[in-house]
Design goal:
single chain, 560 residues, elongated, 18 helices, Endonuclease, Chain A, alpha/beta, Rossmann fold, 7-stranded mixed beta sheet
Length: 560
């Protein structure tokens, strides 16, 4: 049990420079009828709290800790006090760095250079406030202390719970010691907890990036994001956030759009930058720079094939902060205001939106799959061609099936109305001809039509696969597609396999002899009852057979 008089336990380093502070605390306490005690000097870090110290902490009404020295013993004693729920008054010299978890609002900072009488007056005000709150507490002994029982029991116990408690206190002490330095690394969950605290303590504002691939970790409506918005909305913090996107497809992310809308409503200025447009690749980081004095650097990595947050480093190193400022300038130079960019996207037609979504994807696919094509004589890489194709389409610099929309619409509609079911797309640059084809399929026939997509290069095949997935998700319609990486000159299909063969501007890829071989191959695998359509060649559109036994080859002039 505690003494009859209120009791305070003073934790401080045994350095001679702090004796005057202890004497001052003891004098202030004595004037108020309070007993002030401290621990005897320890030469080494405490690994198991000594019975005398434990009993003093347990019985004290208030813990007063002078933490300027960063003494492991002092922090260890503070850890025990926190674990037992003891009211604590923390003191530190004004120019001393203190642990992050023990933030400035919790510490009485004093100037050791002022006169003793002036220091006493300031300290008395702080002491009286803490003592009053401590004595008003209705239950100073927490269930933890009651559970542990008497001091003798604690000293003799060797059970799992006691070991776990000791480990917890040791962990607290070690973490506190780390925070005395310039930086510390925490795990993913602690990163969120400490990040929330940063927003709650924010004074002026800050800058942050948001790597959109981390969607599984960062959410638009979680506590972390809400605290950031509250800092901007209620505490008038000036915050800028840049969403760093891996590709244009991310512009259509509902999560991104929701995040931008909520941030803007709260007063956070949002921007969008693309990874490829940021000149300094070192700047592509998920980081925050707060009050121009605290750097939070997120660490991410692949876990099970997905990018996930692994931890965060909080720091105040001046060189690191200066580097982060350079990152900020570099990123903002490549960024656009998010609301303006998203609004511009919303006003595009659906076809252009789809090209924009697929452009970066096809560029990556070309890097992975292109090895050669009809255009390059099947020897040199066709990456340059397929990687730039969608961008050229967006700029209107290449001929595509879109230029002959009415021609394809009429031809495909007639073919399906005539009973075409097995269709071959023989060579393509992207999904465009597939798009025109499926739009002409009567809804009642969708499940019965099988479309084979053929090209000698995997890149156009893979972008058709991407389009297939997008179409099914968007339209809620399943397409029966077959993907074949084959040579159109020698397909290995059986005779009379297809009802309809279509392509666009494909014949221009071959010389005269190869064209004859290609058309011969088409005739072999075509059933002969339905049309083969081809796009522009030498300035004309060509329709071969409609059907073969009724029509001769037709050439339709470009202007008809």
């Amino acid at each position: 049990m505690r003494n009859k008089k209120p009791l305070i336990f003073v934790a401080m380093s045994f350095d001679d420079k702090y004796y005057n502070m202890f004497n001052l605390i003891q004098a202030i306490a004595g004037d108020r009828g309070v007993t002030a005690v401290r621990a005897d000097e320890e030469k080494t870090v405490i690994k198991k709290i000594r019975p005398g110290i434990f009993s003093k902490i347990r019985d004290a009404d208030l813990i007063v800790a002078e933490i300027s020295s960063g003494s492991p013993n002092v922090l260890y004693e503070v850890g025990w006090a926190h674990a037992m729920g003891k009211p604590t008054m923390l003191l530190a010299e004004k120019d001393v760095s203190i642990p992050f978890d023990i933030n400035d609002t919790m510490v009485f900072k004093y100037d050791s250079g002022i006169t003793p009488s002036a220091l006493r007056r300031l300290l008395e005000i702080e002491f009286d406030k803490h003592l009053k709150e401590a004595l008003q507490a209705t239950n100073l002994k927490q269930p933890l202390v009651e559970m542990l029982g008497s001091l003798e029991e604690i000293s003799s116990r060797d059970d799992l719970f006691t070991h776990l408690l000791g480990w917890t206190i040791e962990e607290f002490s070690q973490e506190s010691r780390q925070w005395i330095g310039d930086s510390i690394r925490v795990n993913a969950s602690d990163a969120i907890k400490k990040g929330i605290k940063v927003f709650q303590l924010l004074k002026s504002g800050g800058f942050a990036t948001y790597l959109v691939p981390l969607n599984a970790f960062w959410k638009s409506d979680d506590k972390y994001s809400e605290e950031c918005r509250l800092a901007a909305q209620l505490r008038d913090a000036k915050i800028e956030r840049v969403f760093i996107l891996p590709n244009h497809e991310a512009l259509f992310s509902e999560s991104l759009r929701n995040h931008v809308a909520l941030d803007e409503d709260a007063g956070i200025r949002t921007y969008i930058a693309f990874i490829d447009n940021i000149p300094d690749k070192d700047a592509i980081q998920d980081f925050g720079l707060w009050d121009d004095e605290l750097l939070c650097l997120i660490e991410a990595g692949l876990v099970g094939g997905e990018t996930q947050v692994k931890g965060c480093t909080f720091g105040r190193n001046k060189a690191a902060i200066e580097k982060a400022r350079l990152w900020q300038d570099t990123i903002l130079s490549a960024a656009q205001p998010a609301p303006d960019l998203l609004n511009a996207i919303d006003h595009l037609d659906e076809s252009t939106k789809l090209m924009l979504r697929s452009a970066d994807i096809m560029k990556r696919q070309a890097r992975r799959y292109c090895r050669g094509s009809y255009l390059t004589g099947n020897k040199a890489s066709c990456e340059w061609y397929h990687a730039s194709w969608q961008y050229l389409r967006i700029l209107g610099l290449v001929s595509t099936p879109d230029w002959h929309d009415e021609f394809y619409k009429k031809s495909f509609t007639n073919a399906f109305n005539s009973g075409a079911r097995d269709v071959l797309i023989s060579g393509m640059a992207d999904y465009s001809i597939l798009d025109h084809l499926i739009r002409a399929i009567p809804s009642a026939m969708v499940n019965n039509v099988v479309i084979s997509v053929l090209d000698i290069c995997w890149t156009p095949i893979e972008i058709c696969r991407w389009f297939d997935n997008w179409y099914e998700e968007k339209k809620k319609v399943h397409l029966n597609l077959r993907y074949n990486q084959r040579d159109a000159l020698n397909t290995d299909y059986n005779d009379e396999t297809f009802d309809l063969i279509t392509t666009d501007a494909f014949l221009t890829r071959f010389d005269e002899e190869e064209r004859e071989r290609l058309v011969t191959e088409w005739h072999r695998i075509l059933k002969g009852e339905y049309p083969l359509t081809s796009g522009r060649t030498s300035g004309i559109l060509l329709v071969i057979g409609e059907p073969y036994n009724d029509y001769q080859d037709q050439k339709i002039a470009d202007d008809e």
